[in-house]
Each structure stands twice: as structure tokens, then as C-alpha cells.
Fold this protein.
Amino acid sequence: MGKKIVIIGGVAAGPKAAVRVKRLMQDAEVTLVDQDSLISYGGCGIPYYVSGDVADEKELRSTSFHMLRDEFFFEKAKGVRTLTSTRAIAIDRTNKTVTVENVQSGEQGKLEYDQLLLATGSQPVILPIPGNSLDGVFTISDLHKAIEIKERIAKGQVGKAVIIGGGAIGLEMAEAFTDLWGVETTVVEFMDQLLPKAVGWTMATILTKHLREKNVEVFLGEAAEEILGEDGRVVGLKTSKRTIEADLIVMAAGVRPRAQLAVEAGLHVIPNGGIVVNERMQTSDPAIFAAGDCVEIVHLLTGKRFCAPFGSLANKEGRVAADNMAGIPSTFKGGVGSFIMKAFDISIGAVGLTLKAALAEGFDADVSLTSPSDRAHFFPGQDIVCFEMVFDRRSRRVLGLQGVGPMNDALSARLDAAAVALANSATIEDFSNIEMCYAPPFSAAIDAINAAGYVAENLCDGRMRQIGMADFYSWMDDYSSQPDWQVLDVRHPKQADPLVEALGEQIWMSLPYEQVRDRYEELPDDRTLIIFCNAGSRSYEIQVFLDSVGRKNTLVLPGGYNVIRRMGASWLP
Amino acid sequence: MGKKIVIIGGVAAGPKAAVRVKRLMQDAEVTLVDQDSLISYGGCGIPYYVSGDVADEKELRSTSFHMLRDEFFFEKAKGVRTLTSTRAIAIDRTNKTVTVENVQSGEQGKLEYDQLLLATGSQPVILPIPGNSLDGVFTISDLHKAIEIKERIAKGQVGKAVIIGGGAIGLEMAEAFTDLWGVETTVVEFMDQLLPKAVGWTMATILTKHLREKNVEVFLGEAAEEILGEDGRVVGLKTSKRTIEADLIVMAAGVRPRAQLAVEAGLHVIPNGGIVVNERMQTSDPAIFAAGDCVEIVHLLTGKRFCAPFGSLANKEGRVAADNMAGIPSTFKGGVGSFIMKAFDISIGAVGLTLKAALAEGFDADVSLTSPSDRAHFFPGQDIVCFEMVFDRRSRRVLGLQGVGPMNDALSARLDAAAVALANSATIEDFSNIEMCYAPPFSAAIDAINAAGYVAENLCDGRMRQIGMADFYSWMDDYSSQPDWQVLDVRHPKQADPLVEALGEQIWMSLPYEQVRDRYEELPDDRTLIIFCNAGSRSYEIQVFLDSVGRKNTLVLPGGYNVIRRMGASWLP
């Protein structure tokens, strides 16, 4: 018999490592332990199971060839001894044993290991507010919870739901509740925008508008203060601003690494954080590896450790751990935080840092906001994707890319290319020259990702001066804050006129793009002109021209009407 | 007045450079010259104009804000002097002038330049066969030709068409003819596969099958020998194997750089090839730049120069040329040959080298063939993408990625990520760890691109031994070529049995995956077992297991039934 390998945790990293290490060392005795009865499931698929897109929870735990990944599958097909409903309760590093306990019988036993993998995952944050243990309060922590939620909805027990937390899981659940089941759903987010860690305010505002159009109520900047109950069951949520009726509440306020076992074993763990591993996924004990949501990985842009609880990374980390347990010196160098989600008819996603995060990290950061077509603008079905590309002005390194697009793979294509580029320390100029495959049904001759690079170059080199979208919105709410500002709309009068009429020429004036070279002297020169078009490119061109004739008091509104239309505004006619 | 900039060629690189250089130097006198009356059009959109997807040719020459990009647009909106119907006939490098001629009046003149850009594009190869100038023989060289073809079809003058050449333009035209207009269309390709420069035989075979299902006849390995005419009009094509009736013939046998002007000016030009430029798009005369289809760029994998006639690269090259004319030291480092096209309901594309090209370049090349899902396999609407990843066994560098997928952006997303990776000299291991953004509606937890890396690792390290798809097909056509081979189908008996029945157990035997560990001793040990499943992953797992019990005489058929079903075969029940 070969090495004894014990793997604790059976969702993503654990099973991946188990089958890989078994393939690499067929003589190894590989034991997979999980406290749950259901293992090896696609946790990210839970919202689609709840929505009904995925009819049966078994689909989430089946292979692509429709075989159920239960303990028998792992034993028979994979040669991996699999102990479900078995909790690991202690690690004895000296004697290299793990004490396990059957969660039904309470029976205990010891598993010997030569090498151990901790793949204990993450656990949802439970907000310490009154009522948090009432019947009807859920976290999305495992498949059982998902099954129970779906059953309640299917039985008609849920007319109104509240999601606490505007992160990905919460929003995916909101869609599931609303779209198929018609549950009146409200999302309550403590921060002043949705997805605060992933995207900037502009992208988040587009998302908020879309959710509201799809009948999801969204309250931002509101703290959940108390969960209200009657007879032990949830009836509502009291926030810092209002009370919301609810038959069901999902706490989706983030996850934390499940690292207690590692802490108790004396391994190096970040306080209140994840297990520390090296590039080989080895913990501070060389015989113990860790992978998946329970570890902290290196952020390739900041060099700092961070938690990246994604099933995709868990699989990669699990595979690298398995390789190293089998003597193959594989490495996992870190991540750039690739993220994407579906929200009804749109996609929203990100890689790298937001502007806010980049500034907080001390970068000399700025952002290019663009709104190009996702494919040739003459191709039927083309749509707009809005992008924010964050870069460092000093080093010209690209730090992040966030975007919102239609519900297809156009956004993910750009994020994926960007992820590879970021991991290779790409500069703005590198982005300008990324060789996206081109044909009109798939992309534009100047691809969105290149265009983002172009704009960033122009900003970095001082050829383009812009106004931030948030500043523009502030001013539109209160003109007196900048009494000498005026919008110069260079779009066709058919597009500009409704705004000129609604807001008055002192706020919004029109001069078509192609007439500016002949008529620029008509423009006022005693105020700051905010140049406005559909996407920002005509505005930039006009700014450059006006600079050349000495009219330098202009700012471009990047992204233009394409972005504003998607964000919405009370002043839009 | 500032610098005098003359730009010859007004389709893609030329206009891009003209407007960029004007923006960078508003005081420059920029003159754009083109022999055609129509300029700045999306040439890659021509097939979609012919098909009717794009209703009006003007859409191909309009901005995203619906302004026609004609000479007035360039003058008024861009400040670029624009001379259409004006041919550049000679360059006087000593006196820095270009002699131009009005193609209608024959009137000649001279344009002075401080800097000159050649963006003269490419011209289609005219096959030197009898009948090549008959009425009804077309190339897709400009918009006028496209307009004439569409008119003939719309008037009902084209019942049958033949496309000579199975490259991208030919196939896109074949789709345009067949799909909307119902023209009986035949593609004749000299090589033994479609897209011979872009993809390998397996991917091309999938494409051929799909085209035939869509009523495009495809003849491979056939030379066009004579175009047959009556009364000066095309009536058919005689090939090396048959005569095909046709009212219209499109010669789509490739393009050549249009470099005559550069040759006559004594610039460094590859014989029968493109203009040689440095990273700044400067020719051998530092005052003369060149960009677009007329130049040869550096292939980032081979280091050699090659022609890459893509509108996307033309725009990038034009921009870099403009930067350098304006004193900004931008560089264009080369390309990896990103390519994609739509063919009815599928997408097919490539980056880097095919296996054949890699072997010809002297690499120790091999290929991993995979057939994963384009998104989570449980997500509604998921589909299969087939990939060939080419790599060098010695350096473990990835050399290319080719694929066929459904008609969405799933393939382009992987190709785009791969293009960035290839340009950064990525290894197989780098591909295994590319951080694709993950959510079930967009991708799988183990993304297709990572899976391709995994398989390549296993091949490179000798853990997986495979049989090439072409070798497998040869054997299926003639079992006697390898009398000791036998297929071991490890899929569910429901899937395997029809093949066992059709071909006999001596050729095709069944033993389900999950039973192999218990029943492997039943397997014959006197022959080579070709292990077969849906995608190749179960086959690999079984191979590894059989190795561990001393049964080492096995080969995996990579990609499995997913690929074979798409390729088609006479022996498939």
C-alpha cells in the first residue's frame, strides 16, 4: 500500500484533489471526509436550482455524463474511500492522525495520514442581530438549505422575501425568487451600492436600475437591524430606515473561511481569515495542505493575501495540492479576482481592482469609462457593454476591468482576456494591442478591450480630461454646486434637443459634432463645457480640437449617453 | 501649418491613422488618398451585406452614430483632406512627393509629404485558369463587387454558385448565398480540408459536416482547372474531378499584399509578399510608414514575418503608425494570428499554430483534443466546444489553440484569453491556471481552457497516451491496418451497445466506466485497447487505472464521442 492521504471537505477542492491524487498515485489510500451527506456539488449552481432552471438538485451533483457524484461513485469509479456525514474534529500533527466523528451516531475514530488536505471551505456570515435564528431565516451554505428554500417557495409559503446583502449570491437568489416564482423580493445592502467589492458605483448603478425594472426592490445604505418574528417565524426585517414584510429572509452578507480546525491544530492562519499556504498549497506544516475557500491566496496586483471563494479557484488549488502530494512540483501563484454574474438580462463582472480599491492600495489610480458595441456595430443583435478600466498613472499598469453587458458571453470574453493580461502585469499599451479574434458576428475591428486601452492612454498622456460620472450626477442634482458648468451635447439635434428643452440651454446646449470645426466660435468661453455624446469618443475628438483653438476649458463625460441611459436619472426626459 | 502627412489607402489602417494623427497634431495637414470612391468600410462585413443581415452597404461605411464615413465626413468632422477616386502612382522619396492621378479624369498632380503612410491593403489572388475573366467571375475585393453580386442574386440571376477556396471569406460567402438566398452553392478547396491554414483536420471536418448539413456542397482536394462560359458568361467550373454548373463564381483563393507602389519606390518588400516594417510600422525609409494588409508583421510564436490581413490588426497598426508620425514612440510587436468566423450555427476559430504548422516549424509539437461544455454542464442551453491545443513537448510552451463551438461567444472568449497567454509565452501549466471568470451561466468550474491545459500536462508527462483522430478514422475505414486494435467503450451500455451491435465485439466492446476497477480482468490483454467515452476524461482515468494493474497496452481516443458525432462517420449507427 502506498501513501495515506486524508482529505477533509468534499465540495470542490477536496474531491478534485482526491481524484487527482488517486490518479497520480494509484497505490495511495485516499480518504475523503465530509460532515455532510451530500458532496461534490456545484454550489454556484444553487440559485439556478432554486429558480428552477436546474430542475433537480441531483443535477448539481452529477457528472457531465449524468452519473451521481455520491460516496459510491467516488469509491467505485474513482477508487477513493469516501466518508460522508463524518466530521473531522481534531488533527494530531505529531502522530499524523485526524479524529473524526459520525454526525449521526457520534461514533469517533482516527484516520492516519501521511499527507492531509484541508478543504473545509467557507461559512456564511451570520449577522449578530435579534431574530437571526427565527424559522425562515436562511443562509446559502449548503444544498440542504437550498432544497428547503425551494420547497417552501414551491408550497406557496413565500410571498415576500428579503435578501440581506447585495453581493453575488444575494442577487442571484433575488433573481431566482422573482423571475420564476414571482416572490416579492427586496435586497437590503449596507453599503451605498450593490457589489461594493467587485465593481464601481457607475456599474453598480446600472445593475440597480436593471434589478428594479425586473421588480426586485433595492435599498442601499441600509443596515439590517432586527429580524421580526411571530410565533417563532419570520414576518419582516427592520432596517435603519424602514420595516419590510417578509416570509423568508436570506442572509447573504458574505462568507468567512472555515479555518477553526486549522487554528486548533496550530497552523498559521490569518486572524479571522483564511489558512496561509505557499505556492504549493502547503500550510505551515509541510505534511498538511489546504485549498479552496478556506485559504488565502496572493492577489497578483497587490501582492497581499485575500480570500477568493470561487469554485473555479478551488478546483485549481485542489489540483495543485494533489500534484504536490504526489511529488509533482506544481504551483498556484495567486489570483486577480475574476468575477462574473448573470442578473436577469444583463451580465456584470470584474477582474482586478476597482478604482476605490486601487486608491486605497496607494496606487496613482484613474479609470477609463467606455461604452462600445459588443460586436460590429452593423451586425444584427449587437449591444453595448459598459467598461471601467482602472490603471496606475505612474507605472501605466492596468489594475482592473469592470463591466456590465448584455446576457451573453461578450463581457466574459473581455474579462478573461483581461485576467490573463493582468496576471502578466500588462500596461495600458498592452491592452491597446490585445489581439482579440475578429469577425463582425463576434467583435468590432477595434475591440472593446482595445478601446479601453486607447482611452486610458489618452487620459494618462493628458490628451483627454474627463469628469467622473459621480461628479456629473452630483452636479445634475444641484447645478449651483458648479454654476459655471454647461453641457455641450455634440450628438444629432434629434438626440440632444429633448435634453435642451427639458433642462434649458444654460445647462444643456447642442452643437452637432460635424459642425464644431466651423462654428466653435459660437461656444461660450466663460464656462466649463462638459462635452457629451453617445459613447465619449466624439466628445474626446471635440475636446482635442477645441484645445487646438485655445478653448481648453472643457471636460469629456466618458461613456456618454450609453452609460447614462443604463444608469437612469430623474432628469432624463 | 504643421507637418504634411499623406496617407495612401482609405479602408481600415489608412483612415484610422489619418484621424489619429490629426487628433495628435491638429496643425498637421493630413491628406487621405484612395483610388476608390467608397472608403472606410468594414470589409469583413461584406458577407453579411450580401446575405442581407446588413440591409444597406451604407451601414458598412457608417459610424456607430449613423454618420456616413465619406470624404465629406473626413473633411468636416475629422479635419482630414480626403481625395477619393485618386490613385497614387509613384513615390519620389528624394523630393518627398507622391504623384497621384484622378481615376476618372486622368488628371495628375503631386502631393508633398513630410511623412507618408502606405495603407494600400491586399488584393485577391486571381487564379491563372482559363475563363477567369468571364462575366460572372468575382473576387471579394471591394464594396462595388459586393454590391454587384447582391444585385445579381436579388434579381434572380444566380441559381447556382461556386466558391473557389475554402478559406474564411469563401465560406462566409457560401453561407450568405445559401442561407438567405437559397442559391445552390458549392465550395471547391484544393487542399484536403477547409481552413487549411487556420485549423487542423479534426476541426475542419466538423465544419465540413456542418456546411453539408446546411446544403453547402463541399469538394476537398480538388483543383479548379477551368471556368466554363457561354456567350462570355460563366456557366460552370471544371475541376480536377468533375464539372459543376454555376451562374456565378467567387474566387476566394487568398489575398496578397498590395505592395507594388512600395516595390517601385525601392522600399524593402518581401518578394511576392508584404512591406517590411519595424515595430514602429516604419519601412526601410524612415519617413515612410506602412500598416494594414500590405505589411508583414512578426509572428510572436515563430519570430518570422507573416501576412495577417485582418481589419482588427490594420486598425492597431494604423494607430501605432500615427503615434510615431506624431512623435509618440508606440510599438506594435506582432501577432499570434487570432481568427474566428461564423458558419451557420457554429463558430470556428484559432490562435497561434496548428499542429501541422508547428511541426513544420520544427517544434516538438503535440496536441490535446478536448470537448468540454461551454458553461456549467447543468446550466440550460449549455453546449460542447471542441478544442485542439498545440504545445511543444520540450519547452512546454503552448503554440496554438483551435476550436469549434456553438454560435455564441464561448469560443471567442477562450481564444481571446489564449491570445493574450500566447503573446506572453505561456506554458501548458499557465493555461491550466488561467483565471477565467466563473458563474454557471458563463463557464464551468473547470473551464475549457484549463481542461485543455490539464490534458496537455498529462500528455507531456507521459501519464496519458493517445491516438490521433485521423489515425483512428483510418483504422475504422480499414481494420486490417491494425488487426490487434479494439475499442473499449466505457460509456453507459445504452450509448455503447448500438456501436457494439453495428461493428461487432471484436471491434467495439463495452465495459462501463464504474465497473472497470472490479472487472478489468475480463479485458483482453493480447491487443491494444482504444478507450472511448464522451469527452476523453473517463478514458484517461481508465487508462491510468489499467496502467496501475499492469495493463499498459491502451490508447485514449481524446475528445471521444462529442467530437466524432460532430465530425460524422459512415460507421456511426
